[in-house]
Amino acid sequence: MRGEVRLGAAVLGLCVAASAYASPATYPLENVRRGQTGYGMTTLAGTKPERFTFEVVSVVHNFLPKQDIILVKSDDPKMQVSGFWQGMSGSPLYIEDKLVCAFSYGFRFNKVALGGCTPIDYMKKEGLDTYRRATVTTARGGMKTVAAQPAATMADWRRLVPGGAVDPQAALDALGPSRKNWLLGAPLPEAVKPAANDDGQVMQASVPLSVAGFSAPAFGQLEKMFGDSNIVPVRSGGAGGTVSEGGPTKFEMGGAIAVELIRGDMSAAAVGTVSYIDGEKVLAFGHPMFQTGETYAPVATANVHTVIPSSQSAFVMASPANEIGSLTQDRQAAIAADTGLRTPVIPMDITITTASGTHTDKGNFHVELLDNKFLTPAIAGAALMNAINYYLPDRDDVTAKVDSVVRIKGAEPITFTDYLYANDGAGSVMGAVRGLRVLVPLLMNPYAPVTIEKVDIKVDLKFEANFGDLKELRLPGGDLVPGTRNTVQVLMSTWDGKDILEDVPVDVPATLAGSIVNMEVTAGDSAKLDAAPPVDLPSLENAFRHLLPGTVWAVTIYPADEGVALDGKLVRDLPASALDKLHPQSHTQRAAAYKPIARTLAPAKRVVNGQTSMLVRVRAAAK
Q: SS3 letters for 90-126?
C-alpha cells in the first residue's frame, strides 16, 4: 500500500511538473533572413541537452505542401564529426532567444552540418489540434486514459482484401501461405517514403528505431518491415517501461523522446527530440513518423548512449526510460504528445519449451505491444520470431505444436492449435501461428472497434522430422457408402523419402446417396473455413472460432447442392422451393448462397503438409 501511495504521488508530481512548463516565446518566420545566427538545444549523451550554434542559409518556400523550411548550417565543434544526425529531429533552434524552428531534415553523405528545420508555427498548427477520440478518467492519480481505438474503415479492410468482401478466409489468405512468414503481407501505415537512390542530394527525415533484445533474424525482419518508410531500425539497449531507475521523469526542450512500439523483454522505440512544451502538450520530431494523423502510442523519456558518426548518415543510440504520456498526433510538421494521457498496451506472453533427448528447457518472454490496427500484428509477429530464434536458433528439422489464445474484451477468447514442421529451424514456423495471423483481420474489421486484452502463445519445439507430404488419395472400395463411417487411404512422403499409407476415417451423410461429391483431405489448420459470411463483429469472431486445430485430419465432402447463409448463420438442408425463393436475393448480406460441406475430424500422427482431393461416387441408397 505504501508503494502504491509513493507511485501515485510520483505520477501526480509528473503532472504538476509538466503543467508548470511555460510555453516558450517564438520568433516569426517572416523575420528570418540569410546569415542570421542562433543556437539550438539537443542531447548528445545522457539526458542533459547541450547548446550548439547555427547560421541561417535560406528559407525554402513550399518545400512540402503548404509548408516552408529554414535551411541551416552549423560549424559548431560539437557537429564537426557527426554532422546532423538521425534522432536529432525536433531539436529546438532559437534566434534572439526565441524559438524559431525544430531541426527536421538532413542529407546523407554530406561533408558539412547542413539541413532543414520546420518552423514552429507549422508544428503548433498541426500538433495542438483537439483530439477526436474520447478519453475516460481512471483512478491512476487522476490520469486520463485513451479510449479504445476506433473501428477500421472499409478502405482499411480493402488494403487487406482488395476485393472488399468481408470474408475471413480471404483475409487470412491475403497474408500469404500459412507456412511462410506473413509479416510483410500485413498492411502497414502508408508511411512517408524516402527518395529511392537519392545519392545524398535530397533532404530526408529519418527516425531511428532503437531496438533492444532482438536476434539478427528478427532484427532483419524489422528492417524489411519498415524498408519503405523513414523508420530506420538501429541496435540499442534497454526495455523502457512505466518506471526506470535513474531515467528522466519529465520532458524538456532539446531532450530525447521515445515513441514505444514494444517494450518488456525486448523493445523497439522511435527516438527523436522534444521541440516545444506548453503545459501537458508536447511537440517533437519536426516531421512525421508515418503521417497517420491522430495516433496513440506510449511516449517515454530516453537516455542517449552516444551519437554514431556514420559516413552515410549519423544516428543516435538511445534507450527509452520512463513512460510519461501518450502520442496524440502524427502529422507532416510534427508529432504531438500529451503527458496527461495514457494509452493502453496489449500484453503478450510467449512460452517456449524445447526438448532434446532427455533434456527439456523452458523459457518465457513478456512484452507489451502498442494498440494499433496497422502495427500491432506485425510487431507481435516479430516478437514471436525473436523468442523462438533465441531458444532454438538451430537450422535443423523441427516440429512445433503451438497453442495460441487471443483474449478480446467482452467476448469469449479465440483459441488455436497449430502443428508445424520446418527443415530450416524453428523461426520458419512462425508464419503459420494463427493466433497472430488472426490479429490482422480482427483489428482491420470494418464493423466495430476490437479491444484485444492479451495474447498468449505457447510453443513446444522438438528436434524431429515428424511430417508427411500428401501425394495421393485412395479409395479401397471404389466408392463411398452413405450413412456410415468409411475409410480412405492417404499416400504421404516422409522426411527420408519413403512413402507411407495412412488410414483416415470419413463420415458420409445418408442424404448424399447416389450423388457425386468432391472429397478433400488436409490438415485441420489448412482446411477451408466452415462458417457463414460475417455481418457484424460477433459473427466475424465466431467465424474464427470455427478454424480447426492443426493436430487433426480434416476430410471434407463438398456436395453439389446449395444451402443458405442467413444473417450470418448457416441454414442447411433447405427444400428446393425455399432455395429458389431466396436465390434472387443471395447477393445481399442478409441471405447468401452457401455451398454446404460434411467434415470429419480424426487425430493425426504427424505434421501434415499439403492437400489432396478427388471426385467420388456415393452409392445409391439400398431399396
A: CCEEEECCEEEEEEEEECCCCCCEEEEEEEHHHHHHH
- Among 121, 313, 324, 309, smallest CA distance to 207 is for 313
What H or E segment, with its residue span, contains residue 12?
helix 2-19
- Indicate yes or no: pTM above 0.70: yes
Radius of gyration of the chain (CA): 29
Per the structure block, which three cell numbers stand in for 617? 461416387
Q: If we measure between CA atoms, which residue out of 542, 541, 479, 549 comes closest to residue 516?
A: 479
Integer Cα distance of 590 and 535 in angstroms: 8
What are the tens digits of pLDDT across the range 370-411? 999 999 999 999 899 888 888 766 666 777 889 999 999 999
Cβ of 449: how many Cβ atoms within 10 Å?
A: 15
- Report the mean per-residue pLDDT for the chain: 82
* Residue keyed to cell 522438438: 462
Q: Which of 227, 170, 156 is nearest to 372 (CA)?
A: 156
DSSP 556: E
DSSP structure class, residue 23: P
Q: Cα 332 to the chain's mean position, in Å?
A: 22
User: Which of 612, 609, 602 is closest to 468 using CA atoms?
Assistant: 609
d(CA 492, CA 473): 9
Mean pLDDT to the nearest integer, 203-210: 81
- Cell 466495430 belongs to 448
Annotated domain spans of the chain: 1-345, 346-462, 467-559+597-617
